[in-house]
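Dissemination and training. As part of the outreach component of the grant, students in the summer workshop were shown how a complex can be specified as a set of sequence lines and then modelled as a single object. The example used during the hands-on session is reproduced here so that future cohorts can follow it. Participants entered these lines:
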Amino acid sequence: MSHNSFGHLFRVTTWGESHGPAIGCVVDGCPPRLALTEADIQPFLDRRRPGQSKFVTQRQEPDQVRILSGTFEGLTTGTPISLLIENTDQRSKDYGEIKDRYRPGHADLTYDLKYGIRDYRGGGRSSARETAMRVAAGAVARKVLEGVTIRGALVQMGPDRVDRAAWDWAAVEENAFFCPDRAAAARWEAMLTEARKSGSSLGAVIEVVAEGVSPGLGAPIYGKLDADIAAALMGINAVKGVEIGEGFAAAALSGEGNADEMRMAPDGRVLFGDNHAGGVLGGISTGQPIVARFAVKPTSSILTPRKSVDRFGQEVEVLTKGRHDPCVGIRAVPVGEAMLALVLADHLLRHRAQNPDAPTEARLPRN
Amino acid sequence: MSHNSFGHLFRVTTWGESHGPAIGCVVDGCPPRLALTEADIQPFLDRRRPGQSKFVTQRQEPDQVRILSGTFEGLTTGTPISLLIENTDQRSKDYGEIKDRYRPGHADLTYDLKYGIRDYRGGGRSSARETAMRVAAGAVARKVLEGVTIRGALVQMGPDRVDRAAWDWAAVEENAFFCPDRAAAARWEAMLTEARKSGSSLGAVIEVVAEGVSPGLGAPIYGKLDADIAAALMGINAVKGVEIGEGFAAAALSGEGNADEMRMAPDGRVLFGDNHAGGVLGGISTGQPIVARFAVKPTSSILTPRKSVDRFGQEVEVLTKGRHDPCVGIRAVPVGEAMLALVLADHLLRHRAQNPDAPTEARLPRN
Amino acid sequence: MSHNSFGHLFRVTTWGESHGPAIGCVVDGCPPRLALTEADIQPFLDRRRPGQSKFVTQRQEPDQVRILSGTFEGLTTGTPISLLIENTDQRSKDYGEIKDRYRPGHADLTYDLKYGIRDYRGGGRSSARETAMRVAAGAVARKVLEGVTIRGALVQMGPDRVDRAAWDWAAVEENAFFCPDRAAAARWEAMLTEARKSGSSLGAVIEVVAEGVSPGLGAPIYGKLDADIAAALMGINAVKGVEIGEGFAAAALSGEGNADEMRMAPDGRVLFGDNHAGGVLGGISTGQPIVARFAVKPTSSILTPRKSVDRFGQEVEVLTKGRHDPCVGIRAVPVGEAMLALVLADHLLRHRAQNPDAPTEARLPRN
Amino acid sequence: MSHNSFGHLFRVTTWGESHGPAIGCVVDGCPPRLALTEADIQPFLDRRRPGQSKFVTQRQEPDQVRILSGTFEGLTTGTPISLLIENTDQRSKDYGEIKDRYRPGHADLTYDLKYGIRDYRGGGRSSARETAMRVAAGAVARKVLEGVTIRGALVQMGPDRVDRAAWDWAAVEENAFFCPDRAAAARWEAMLTEARKSGSSLGAVIEVVAEGVSPGLGAPIYGKLDADIAAALMGINAVKGVEIGEGFAAAALSGEGNADEMRMAPDGRVLFGDNHAGGVLGGISTGQPIVARFAVKPTSSILTPRKSVDRFGQEVEVLTKGRHDPCVGIRAVPVGEAMLALVLADHLLRHRAQNPDAPTEARLPRN
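and obtained this result:
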């Protein structure tokens, strides 16, 4: 058991604080002989990186990843892969004033109550900076998931949702919000500019989708694929809700309305009329796309003063200056993709260990 | 790693199929010298048991639990606690017709694709019958959580939500739905009767609340309390969504609207104006009530025929006869409470191991 | 983490006390579609069972195992296998006099210091009775290890060692000591009769050998096959030492004397001139036989009074009556075999997860 | 599960190869507010470091450790501690000739059979260089073990054992062999010089002792303290045997001879006449010193040519040049101490989680 590790067989342990010398992770259990260099990882980090638009924090970090172990001549060796990013832009002075004060909505208070000590600089360990290592590890996980496509998009900003009929994956890479609906992206630009000017912030909902996943990943009871996806996404900073497939809307449907009818494709694969289930039945993947969504609360650091307390038990007002995202949900898109990749890579190895001869497509008859 | 174990230090392993000779679990890591007999567990099982009203499956199981190990003269000994319930009402003949057919919305297909074999009788391992052991183990977990109150309620059936202003915990025990709003309970009775007559089914949303939880439970990054709660609740049969505190609604709030302002109580404890966070900040409990909700899909077994396939790759129609709940969400209430208890007991031990001198109340100054 | 589980992917959790209603275990992670009934397990239990000769405890237990879950129509289903043996001969009255006294060499004192409570009847959880479940689980592990032969023998009783030149595996099943040397068996019969008459006891050394093991099992650093074998064997009751291959004798050899030279077999497999390494290099199996030995101390329960203390802090004399083995090492033979099987089955699954295309024989070239 | 992590609650994950840019580890689960800087770790690394005498490898590494995370203002914060040592003296050219050849007694062959790829430079991941991180992590573990003294000594080199009557802990730091017997140290100097000249090598036995350990560490069945010590020590490079207390010699004792009689000290603590058990009964610490020994085989790299094979399946002769220890057992002394520290720190946290009010001394009455 580790509080800083994720996964069982494809296992990632991250370390590092926002304002320490570096952050890093160890990826243990990666299969050998996969092609892997920094160039496979860097593009995913660049996509998540702050400082790319006026809508995300202006902290400037090159976020240059280095592979310190686990590869030889460009191939993984089966031994632990150590990844490291140096922290180069740390401006610790910005954070002096919150040294003794607990910012509402942040982990400041709970860290102090738990540990009796905290590195207050930039949130220390609880900083979203740690998610850079999840994205890096996720890039390694994608190598394990040959044939699987994992993509994410922002489907709601504040109260404004995308029009699913207008969904275009190509649009996601064209705007600063990972928004699949060009009209929504235009509206959001105005919303976010307004929030930024007023020192306010906005929440968001992200959808992540994995296509090409083998059936059979996941397992009964406490190894359920959807339960692990839920933990993975809920564990991203500021996330307050997770749903799979139809999600909370399923509660309002009838059994008939929610049924995923099945039929046979001419090539012998099982297809589903709908995918209300989001690609998981009984905790095990069906071979249909895996669809999950998660809700990110509005950034807690805002310019409006809020009542709080300090570590001496005095009531104070807190107003967060410094460099922050008005909508942290935007940067959560690549993080959500990475977490989904980590869950799937781990479950692929777990499935294979117990079921080495299971089919990689939903074909019948099974035997 | 185990696909059938839950928790790390307070660890539960369940076993058993719906129509085997028995189901059971092993609770490992329970602290010694807690008073524990079958009488501490049985009431929780009775509350979950089928056959109590016309709204839940008519399968009649006494669900009499036996403690086979881990206690001595009425006290836990620190060694593994084995709990067992015999299956007494198994009517295997009811299930013959689904032997070769995959019921839509069930785990039939995915088990066959994964394992190449399945015990089709009553869903085998994927049957909700397994949740009886979660409830039993949860009763043991409650013993560990001295001073903590864990309760649950159905807050939505189909599209109909309770009026939170009318919430009365006492009402929960008065109706067949664990409904805290007496007016809603009356409406639901009509809805469910109608669904039952027409062979249809309804979804539901359940809320579970833990009061009296120490601050400091949970840990950064991958040991987050809310992430583990998400996994625990998503892992309950038929659950498609989980949220903590404000949940998905947080996405539509502004940073100001979602802020949990803090103040000092006269006794030196930190109090929160609101509890949008649901009792968890940065993955660590604040000392406020922990509030989580989860959505249960409508029962997949309905009387309307649905298109499906059989294990030979032929298209068929499936109509589920047999004894089923028109709203499985009802029985998920005690299961949700139990899962929350399991998460909290495990995290209490994990917290204590690393932080033996941490405060049990949110008092400042910490040192 | 569990104090009562063994293995990671092929994972066994045992429960039960010597004088409770039953003992049992849950085997999680077993691959599906292996033929398994009670008849596959019972012979191994019968081999370990007390009461078979005058040299082992006269406690009469039929030790009849029942499979309660995880199989369907004689095949494993991939779900957890629950095994149970009822305790039928419990004579609790024999143990009243050690209720408050700590027997030297037993776990009585340490359980009380740790837990503040103990089930003193027959040693409770620390009784060797628990090893019956290891043997049962080991029988399941053997099913996973197709093509692997696992055998054990007593190679030393008290100070008297077998003559390795006289080794005959057939002899092992012919005497009451699992002794591979017929002459030694005859000597031991006299020794043990003498020890028994005088109320004394004898230690022993057991050797276990696995032939037909694939190369590649085990992993660098903390997943070493030999480290896991060491833990498995040291964890057997009364064991004080473990060695692999040449073992402690290797310390006295020169590098030349200990070198395992290699050559190519005509069929392309790598063979070793000697097997000083005991089948493991760098923590990974070589494909040669895996050879391990472990030392069992003389039974602590003897008829000569020994100085001790009671739980009130008073000095007392303790003399153990009741039914005990004069040489517990004898019954440790099938237990050692079982533990080796459990380690190998777990590592086979672990290896397969990360290296699905690794060769199952030590053939070169690898690619 | 991870092949490169050790421990459960105090958990260490190491990474890095002999000739990569760096090696490192992550220590997760360390309690907060312990004083920790590089100066607490460096002395232990210096003690293990190569190049200190003519008897250990002449590789010159400053082995300067850096703490990259997990501390703040000189105190641990409860978050993961990342330690890193750069590899500065890598001379890769030395190893070209073993690129395609498998050195007898090394992990070269098994890595290739398992992974189909290996970093052959200096043994890659299987190099003893990795043990530097165990020593570094062990230094952190010692911080957790307040009041515990952990020491080690070489008690046998080749066939020559120390005289236990001449044991002096002070001597250990005075010679190049960690030898507690000054006369033996003088003999060993001659032996090792001779071995070095002839290109041969010697094995060794190391004893590690922990004093001041609380009773109650360890747990029944599969969480046994001695089983975990066995795994920890057997997992050190080149170790072939492990024993606790009397060890293999216990097999030759009678029950009377091996009994650890107990009496009460005037201060209410339980004392033992002897400590044949080595401080562990039933897998749980007694409060007496914990005593373990392990056997290290002679260095496999010798100057005498040995028959082997290459990766193309050709028979070859291998002679290892390069910088190597004639007796790797010497450097295993600080590694053994570190591993014992890691086991004890982990078990202290595990014990505390389940038994927060257990006594820290072996005092009776317990309640």
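The helical segments of chain B are 38-48, 108-115, 131-144, 169-172, 182-197, 225-234, 255-258, 332-354. Students were then asked to discuss how this feature might be tested experimentally.
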